[in-house]
Every structure is written in structure tokens, then in C-alpha cells.
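Private note to self, pasted from the team thread so I don't lose it. C-alpha cells:
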């Protein structure tokens, strides 16, 4: 998603996730890094130890506790985000889920959450708390099913 578009909320409402959108949480202590699978790093030609390097970077700029959340963790994300100041991710769905759960994010510009989080990882003490509804509407308009591809809906909406 390259921009937040002026689209209606019908597709977001159809997902029936309104109750999942929690108020922004402020005042958490720890930083959660959302790690991902090696294939993700390989496709983007990034080092597989990106998360470990991020720990080192963050330790140089903050004294907050840092936790790495592995992609295949069996612990619910909501539990890992308890008492979280923020979630740090390159481009993980965990960042989108974090924003919906009210935890601020620091992400790469490629992330779908870049429009409602802080891009970059140097200003970790200053998260942003923007309005999220239009972002959610736009995000919902970036999801398509097979019928919409076949019947031309996708192409009409992108034109």
C-alpha cells in the first residue's frame, strides 16, 4: 500500500473487526521486535540476522528491555505486546496487527503499517499515534478475492 486513499469503510466493516481496533496504548516499557522467517530476508536481500542487529542498534539508543518475537511463536501477539512501548518490524503483518491492537510501531517504509507508524528506528522514544480509520479502509481496499479478480472488480477499483 503506497498511500492512504479516500475510500469508503465498507470493506473494512465487512471484515467485522471494529471491536478489535483498540485505543492507542501509551506508557509501556519494553520493545518487541517482530522477527520473520529466513525466506523474507532472502527475498529482500537483507541479512538474516536483521533482528539481532536491530537489538544492538536499539541498545545503543535506549535502556528499555528488548524482546524478540519469533514469527512462529505460539504466544499470542497480544500477550507479547502487554507492557510494550512499541513493536519494531521490517515489514511484518505483526506491525499491522500491533497498530490495530493499539501498540505503536517503528517500521521500514515498505511496511503496510508505515502510514500509521514511525518509519525508521532511530527515534524509538517518540512513537506516533495517528488516526487509523482511513488507513484501515485503504488497507481493506488492497485485499482482493478470486471472484473480484475474475469479474473485473479489482481492475475497475484500481483504475
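Design output:
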Amino acid at each position: 500500500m503506497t498511500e492512504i486513499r479516500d475510500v469508503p469503510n465498507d470493506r473494512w466493516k465487512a471484515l467485522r473487526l471494529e471491536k478489535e481496533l483498540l485505543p492507542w496504548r501509551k506508557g509501556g516499557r519494553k520493545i518487541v521486535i517482530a522477527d520473520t522467517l529466513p525466506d523474507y530476508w532472502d527475498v529482500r536481500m537483507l541479512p538474516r540476522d536483521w533482528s539481532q542487529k536491530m537489538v544492538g542498534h536499539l541498545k545503543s539508543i535506549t535502556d528499555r528491555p528488548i524482546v524478540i518475537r519469533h514469527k512462529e511463536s505460539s504466544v499470542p501477539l497480544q500477550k507479547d505486546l502487554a507492557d510494550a512501548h512499541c513493536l519494531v518490524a521490517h515489514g511484518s503483518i505483526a506491525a499491522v496487527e500491533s497498530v490495530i491492537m493499539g501498540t505503536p510501531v517503528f517500521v521500514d517504509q515498505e511496511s503496510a503499517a508505515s502510514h500509521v507508524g514511525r518509519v525508521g528506528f532511530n527515534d524509538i522514544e517518540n512513537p506516533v499515534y495517528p488516526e487509523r480509520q482511513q488507513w484501515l479502509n485503504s488497507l481493506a481496499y488492497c485485499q482482493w478475492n478470486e471472484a473480484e479478480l475474475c469479474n473485473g472488480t479489482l481492475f475497475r477499483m484500481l483504475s
